[in-house]
Amino acid sequence: MELAELKWPDVAALSRDMPVLFPIAALEQHGLHMPVFTDSLLLGEVLRRIKEPLKGRVLFAPLFWLGNSHHHLDFPGTMSASPRVYLDTLIDMAENFMMHGFRRLVFLNGHGGNIVPSQQALFELRQKYRRRGDLLLLSATYWTGGGNPNQADPSFVQTQMGHACEWETSMMLRIRPELVGDYRSTPDVPWGKAFAPAHRAWVTKDRTEPGHIGFPRHASPEKGEMLFQVFSAAVVQLLERVVAWNGKEWDA
Question: 42 CB contacts (<8 Å, ≥6 apart)?
Answer without folding.
Answer: 25, 110, 168, 171, 172, 175
